[in-house]
Fold this sequence. Notes:
- Chain A: Pfam families: EF-hand_7 (PF13499).
- The complex is a heterodimer of chains A (183) and B (949).
- Chain A is mainly α and 183 residues long.
- Chain A folds into two domains: 86 residues, Recoverin, domain 1 (Orthogonal Bundle); 84 residues, Orthogonal Bundle (Recoverin, domain 1), CATH 1.10.238.
- Chain A is built from eleven helices and two strands.
- In chain A, strands 1-2 form a two-stranded antiparallel sheet.
- Chain A is elongated and about 55 Å long.
- Chain B is mostly helical and 949 residues long.
- The longest helix of chain B has 60 residues.
- Chains A and B meet through helix 1, helix 4, helix 6, helix 7 and helix 8 of A and helix 1, helix 6, helix 10, helix 11 and helix 16 of B.
Amino acid sequence: xxxxxxxxxxxxxxxxxxxxxxxxxxxxxxxxxxxxxxxxxxxxxxxxxxxxxxxxxxxxxxxxxxxxxxxxxxxxxxxxxxxxxxxxxxxxxxxxxxxxxxxxxxxxxxxxxxxxxxxxxxxxxxxxxxxxxxxxxxxxxxxxxxxxxxxxxxxxxxxxxxxxxxxxxxxxxxxxxxxxxxx
Amino acid sequence: xxxxxxxxxxxxxxxxxxxxxxxxxxxxxxxxxxxxxxxxxxxxxxxxxxxxxxxxxxxxxxxxxxxxxxxxxxxxxxxxxxxxxxxxxxxxxxxxxxxxxxxxxxxxxxxxxxxxxxxxxxxxxxxxxxxxxxxxxxxxxxxxxxxxxxxxxxxxxxxxxxxxxxxxxxxxxxxxxxxxxxxxxxxxxxxxxxxxxxxxxxxxxxxxxxxxxxxxxxxxxxxxxxxxxxxxxxxxxxxxxxxxxxxxxxxxxxxxxxxxxxxxxxxxxxxxxxxxxxxxxxxxxxxxxxxxxxxxxxxxxxxxxxxxxxxxxxxxxxxxxxxxxxxxxxxxxxxxxxxxxxxxxxxxxxxxxxxxxxxxxxxxxxxxxxxxxxxxxxxxxxxxxxxxxxxxxxxxxxxxxxxxxxxxxxxxxxxxxxxxxxxxxxxxxxxxxxxxxxxxxxxxxxxxxxxxxxxxxxxxxxxxxxxxxxxxxxxxxxxxxxxxxxxxxxxxxxxxxxxxxxxxxxxxxxxxxxxxxxxxxxxxxxxxxxxxxxxxxxxxxxxxxxxxxxxxxxxxxxxxxxxxxxxxxxxxxxxxxxxxxxxxxxxxxxxxxxxxxxxxxxxxxxxxxxxxxxxxxxxxxxxxxxxxxxxxxxxxxxxxxxxxxxxxxxxxxxxxxxxxxxxxxxxxxxxxxxxxxxxxxxxxxxxxxxxxxxxxxxxxxxxxxxxxxxxxxxxxxxxxxxxxxxxxxxxxxxxxxxxxxxxxxxxxxxxxxxxxxxxxxxxxxxxxxxxxxxxxxxxxxxxxxxxxxxxxxxxxxxxxxxxxxxxxxxxxxxxxxxxxxxxxxxxxxxxxxxxxxxxxxxxxxxxxxxxxxxxxxxxxxxxxxxxxxxxxxxxxxxxxxxxxxxxxxxxxxxxxxxxxxxxxxxxxxxxxxxxxxxxxxxxxxxxxxxxxxxxxxxxxxxxxxxxxx
Lengths: 183, 949
């Protein structure tokens, strides 16, 4: 609980710590992002948001191909502006200790580029292109997306619902170790 | 990759990594502690989750569950269980409040959260509140609940019960904490443990319960919870357990951090891991497999080096006679002038030849130094031990690899999906690491794509088979041809050996032919292999096997020449031996005659003047060392010229050239996996064969492998381009290992042959003076071991014992083999079953309304026709449906599931349409109306024959 500069009430601190997987230093980091926007004193829960452009420049996210999606899927307005609560939320989900189910939910949201609650082919193509820096040929992309859907699609609607996704991801051996950010 | 990135990130970002641990060590700890508690804990949250999720739907089961829960709670209530009972109430309440609506649900979760909050409060030392307050609060809650829920009567009772119990629990806990000494002492340890466990449980619950809610909501709920929490502040706030717990938490945190650091450290300790990963990310696992093999080889050679130097070379240097003391350690006078010339040294003659590097230098003293180290025995043992260790290591590695991966490729169900969604490591925060990761992801996708394309490839199977047979035929022909050529050349060279008037070509014919074959054949094989059109991974194996067969010819000629040499040397030796004995006698005779005193001991002859035998062992050793060194030179030069110079030319001449050099003809080189692997394998064979005659060879080889690792890593990254089709290497390197084993066996033979049959030279080496090399063992047994050991050995060497032993071993091998086969079969069976189960599940969900539809139609059709005989249009409709159905279905299900799904549908469709189709086809125009109709149709159509009604 040792954040010297920022001020929270004890209750607030407790609340955060209880409900979260990681709290220490988070506010410090949040404050660093936009010192002029974020007040140090959080006792009366000021309403301020840090825009996406600032957040994706954090060293933890800078190299991540999905950084924009990550931030967007954690922001309430979908535009990537994060309030402190959402910011904390983000790193708690991405922390080492968050359970698999929780991570799966957010991973699904992150990969769902067009926010229709399904991972359709378009989403997969975007994911793949981001992963490979568009070095695969269109045919290869097509093949990979086809195969991905084929592998995981259980209900035959040619796109991945969350159930499909969870079923798939719950068996992935290294999902937990890779979907995780240390801050 | 993740390791690397971990490390990278930690350096780069420099963030306090254990920050996120503080909150969750509870969970960690919980995870760490196994046992009954853990299981119970695991179950509870699950049921809670259930409860929350479908609260509204199943009220009845809910109630039951609540009741169930109540029971155990009531039953308990002893001192020990007060924590439990505290834990219980919220749940009971929840159970009771189950019938409430949404609002109730929210409250429920508050309560759950409160369990956790309690822990926190405890930490702050915020003790317990008065019982009264608690009661009030409970009441308040209840009232609240009452307001919401209509049917609360029963629940109220529950609550009351609970309250009562609560009181009891609290009072007991009060007494426990405040006063009663004996109780404290009685359950001190147990209490602490219980408290921890409870706390852990709560933490765990808290962690699991973190729903994907917005922070805002979570906080609100928490706030409500916080107020509720206080009354459950029970025994947990007490001093000792608290501290112990805090201490434990801290230790867990430290331990986890330590483990992580240790893990990182361990990865950092694996030599060249980074380098290999880097190569792998750009060139694919197939190229990396070569480097892994190289690393493995390096490790093995390091151990061999340790043995040889530790047990043979160093003792000889430290404790043996110094250079120049005896003839075998001295350069003969005739050679002394040139012994230091560079060219002579490069041929490993001169000082090199009479150095510790070679067999001949070693003395035949039974023991050396004050330690009475039995050097000759140790020499022989190390020579045999080298083979023993290598065999063991190779076989062990093979077995382990078979255990790990076994088959080629991955038979996972989610190859692509996992690659897509889990391959990016979110920890990466370093630009360079990220670039590598992009490359490796792309490469791994490409590998899988190649595999997939291979699976999807369907072509003319007969043509393919024909081409494969043809290719194998061609290759067998060329192998046979080159084999005969080698045989022929060797014969001729024997012929030439007796003649003196040889032209330059005739002298070097064998070398020329061999190198020509080595130059021409591999590309030829590769070209022919194009015909086969195998998956590149399998093609590589074939290629390896074929070139291996070709190289065996090389080996054969080499050994042939060597044995020739040895035989001539042995003949020569006999005469020299006589000459040398005669010379010695002469010398002594002369001396005594000159001094006229037969008693006086003559001064020993100058060791440089003594007549020496040819020492065939050293000659063989020199041969192997020369070969190894020239091999090193050739391979390094090849890389320098073939890859580096080519890359430089292509890169820089491209600016001023007529055509595009990079994309066009010369282009950049690809890494030649098969050539490099075989080079490594055969080189190792040379080492194994030569190590006995030249102990220094192992050292040279270690240096070679070490430099080659860096050099080739650099070369491949700097000058080569990835293969056109990057393919995934089979998980185990077992094919390489198999080749290595074969070579090991082949190189074992000549060495063992020489040890067992050829007489060692009379004046050099540790075994001089013996008839056979292994006599040293006999000698040791006779002289140094107690007598009964000798008889024991003689019994053991009895054929009567050996033959049964061999038989037994053969039987054991047979038995184990059949067992492993049986396991393999059952393994396959299980795999098949799993796959089937999965496909079935998929199909069931997938075709819930398609396949089943067909079935339904099928079912409907028959009874319908029998039930409603007079409806003529109906069957007609059904026919149409039936015929159309198979078509839309495949389109409805995606082609993806085709594997099983469509086939199944097809089958069904066939089965269903056949009996019906018979009707319309045989009488095309007729059946519509009255035709196949109700009467005849059903009975005929299905074997089942619906019951006539």
